[in-house]
Structure formats: structure tokens, C-alpha cells
Amino acid sequence: MTNETTATTGSITELIVPGMGSDHCAGIIRTTLQRLDGIAEITTNIANHRVNVSTSNGGPDANALRSAVEGAGYEVASVSQAQDSDGEAETVAEQNYLSQARQRLWIAGVPTTLIMLLMVPHMFWQPVPGYLAIVVLLAFPVVFLYGGAATHRASWRSLKNRTFNMDVLISLGSIPPYLIGLAGFVYPMTSFVEMAATITTFHLLGRFLEAKAKGRASEAIRRLLTLGAKTARIEREGAEIEIPVKELQPGDVMVLRPGDKIPTDGEVIDGESHVDESLATGESVPVFKAKGDAVIGATINKEGRLRVRASRVGSDTFLSQVIRLIDQAQGSRVPIQEFADRMTGRFVPVVILISLASLFAWLLFGENLRPILVWGSGFLPWVNPAADTGVLAILAAIAVLVIACPCALGLATPTALMVGSGIGAERGILIRSGEAIRKRTAIPPLKGLV
Fold first, then answer.
1. Concatenated DSSP letters for 241-268?
2. CA triplet 322, 328, 333: central angle to 5 degrees?
3. Cα separations in angstroms, 272 against 291, 299, 306, 330
4. Start-end ranges of CATH 2.70.150.10 in the chain?
5. Residue 213's pLDDT is what?
6. What class has domain 231-318?
7. What is the per-residue pLDDT across 69-105, written as a single tens digit (0 to 9) for each?
8. Can you tell me whether residue 296 is helix, strand or coil?
């Protein structure tokens, strides 16, 4: 997760990329966009799926930025000017992505479950007639249609763009096993089709859980937005009128009756009252306010009538700044993520090299390694030490691709930070940066105590 701040020039375009789920993904998107001419700054935040791109005069337009990100293998839900973004597009994109992830998981999960239910008896005690044909038919929609199609398209775009994302590993771990499994119709060999369906389904399960965790964290921030007033009663030409808070301007005089929620930050110009500021300060006792005192938007006027001159509106208010700080905390980086960046950036190519090394090791030294299979077959009934050396080599190579996944490094740390700051906001604990979560401050001993 990245949230960098530098000076910007020209226009700032905001892209919502729902599939940007880890530092690895964010790094690929940044690298892709940096290849374009006229890019001044790129900031990515996987907590809210945003990519903000600052371009210099004559730089790429919104369509060019969208095409570049899609060329890297990621779908773009929306593109807008950053200053015009109100979070609605982000919310809609997040909800659509979660719904889509749930649908794909169900469509892949049902056939995969049936395959597992058939595989267990077929493997251990009762061969199933026509087993291979059944699992091939059940696995096809999982691997190639609605279940894995989006992953394979993203892999292809990523490879064309000379980048490697996690989708490449998933494609390599699912398509070759399925195709090799078809050889079982003409040659007696271990079926890999079950592996292809399982890895696709587990990948979709991970995407769904990731989207769900982010949705819960973002919901805590969205609740803060509901704390503010929706309308304001102001004085205009000697009369009191009610307008939406969005139309308030600095200098407008707001009229607050007992029990009213203060629409925006301002200064009391007439009247006396107590104001409940527990939202902002945590102080449970209402604070006395009189002429000249400052009040905070979204706090509650208790018993008196106040006239308040608006001083800060929109994104300048206290509540908006709190929301912005939490958003920045979710997008901030902790030192361990620097290590994660270095690792995930090289992860996929290294895994592919290890897989190829495993393939050639078994092809060249298969007979020397076969005793390992003989030993393993004593407690693993599915191990076949008598299998052809070529089959064993393919199995070893595919096994490396299947078990390798960069999510543990590229997703666990930023997701933990994101969820932690979101839950903190929900419980009234505001965390300004990820460093504050990681850092432990030593408390000096009190004098006179041993």
C-alpha cells in the first residue's frame, strides 16, 4: 500500500482499480504508468483502490491512463478528476467488485466441491466409473469460463505489458495441469484436472475475502461521513432559510436551535449554550460556548440558541480532515512493507525459474530422486513411485507454481494496517499513520520507584 506526497503539476486524475489488492499489484501499476511521457507523480492506495496520477501539461489524458492500467492486466472501474471525486464512485466500485467476487466464487466453488467429493472415494477406496471425463467437464467452466477467464485475461495483458502479477502464477498453475490431465484419456497417468479447479477456486476465495475485509474497513470510514449534518439553517436577507450543507459558504451565519447538529466549523457571534463535543474530543461533559468561541461541525448544540458564522466548509472542516487522516493512515507505509515491495517485485519470475529448475532436475536426475517417492508412498497413498520420469517432472514443476503465492507478503501487512485503522475509527480511536501502529514507545521509570 502506498501513499506518497510530492508537489504536483498540471491535472490530477483519479482511477478506481478494484483489482489492485496488494503492494505487488500497486507496484506493477506504478511501473506501467511511469513508462508514459508527461507523468509528474503517481500515488497508489490499495485500501480504497485509488490511483492518483498527476500529469504535466501535454501529458496523457484520462483515456490513455485507463488504457495503460488495463494493459497491465487490471480493470478500471471509473476515471475522474481527483478534485471532483466525492467517494461515491469508490463505494459503487467496491460494492460491484465484492458482488462480482462472490458470484465467481459460487460458480467455481460448486463444481470444485463436486470434484472433491468424487476424488476422495476414487482415490482411497472405490474407483468411480468415467471419473476423468466427469472431472474434466466439471472443471472446464471453473478454469476457462466465468471462474478463471478474468484471471487469464489479466495474465495475458500483464505478459504483453512485460510485467508479472499474481494472475500469471494462477494461470500457470491451472491451465497446464488441466491440459496435461487430458493426456489421461490416452496415457495412464495421474490426473491434474482436480488441481487446476482447486487452485482457481482458492484464488477466487482469496479475492473474495480480500474484498470483504476492505469493505468492512472502508465502512467504518463511511460511517463517519454520516455524522455530519445534511442541512443548515442560515440567515439570508433578514430571513431564515434551510439549505444543503454542501451549499454553505464561509461567512454564512447559521442559526442553531437546541438539539441541532452544527453543520460546519465556525465561530459563535451571538448566544450562549453548551455543546456536546464528544465526537471530536472524547470529552463526555458538554462544553460552554459563548460569543467568540469556536465550534466544530457535527457536534451537537444542547440547550441554547446560537448564531454561528461559518469559517470552514467542505473538505476544510474538522470532520473532513479526520476522515482524510484516517484515509492517509490506511494508505501509509510501515517499514516492513519496503521489504515486501522488494520481495514481491521479484517473486513471480523467481517462482517460474524454480519451477523450471524442478522440471529439469527430475528430467535429468529422476532415478536418483525416485527413492524419495518410494519413502513417501508409505503414508501418502496418492504418490505413485512407478510413474514415468516425465510425468514426475511435470508434477514437480506444477506443484511449485500452485503453492507459490505472493499474497502473504504483499497483502497481509497492508490489509492488517487498513482493517486496524478502520476498526479504530469505528471505536473512536483515530490513527494518523501506519508507523504509529508499529512503533512502540518506551515509558521511562518514575523517580523513586525501583
1. EEEEGGG--TTPEEEE-TTPBP-SEEEE
2. 145
3. 7, 15, 6, 39
4. 231-318
5. 65
6. mainly beta
7. 887 777 787 777 655 455 555 566 667 777 777 888 8
8. coil
